Task: inverse folding
């Protein structure tokens, strides 16, 4: 088995209810697990403003799923994205070892801690 690590982000239309949004995200996770992928991490980033309008919509529900699978699974996942009219945009990227380390640190909250600026003492 030749497993690779991937990260996929998709944007759902903002007209969905909370339940519809969660069901759609679960549907894509199920597509992955049905094809033998192992989901490492999933996040819902909530409703965000889009960088540019997509079909008269200026906001969308962002979701991230990190998973490991065979490369062929990505094709199946992206086919499902294209078939679902609730998906505005999606992007799936393969992760290298540096990206994996970064994601582990980000999940552990390493980048959320703000350090106090060091004050220099004047003599």
Result:
């Amino acid at each position: 088995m030749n497993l690779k690590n991937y990260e996929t982000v998709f944007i759902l239309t903002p007209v969905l209810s909370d339940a519809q949004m969660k069901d759609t995200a679960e549907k894509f996770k199920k597509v992955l697990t049905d094809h033998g992928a192992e989901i490492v991490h999933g996040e819902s980033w909530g409703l965000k403003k889009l960088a540019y309008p997509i079909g008269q919509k200026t906001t969308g529900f962002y979701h991230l799923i990190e998973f490991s699978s065979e490369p062929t699974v990505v094709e199946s996942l992206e086919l499902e994205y294209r078939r679902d009219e609730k998906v505005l945009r999606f992007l799936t990227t393969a992760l290298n070892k540096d990206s994996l380390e970064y994601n582990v640190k980000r999940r552990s909250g390493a980048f959320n801690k703000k350090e106090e600026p060091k004050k220099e003492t004047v003599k």
In short: Residues 18-34 form the longest helix (17 residues). The mean pLDDT is 89. The radius of gyration is 18 Å. The chain has three helices and four strands.
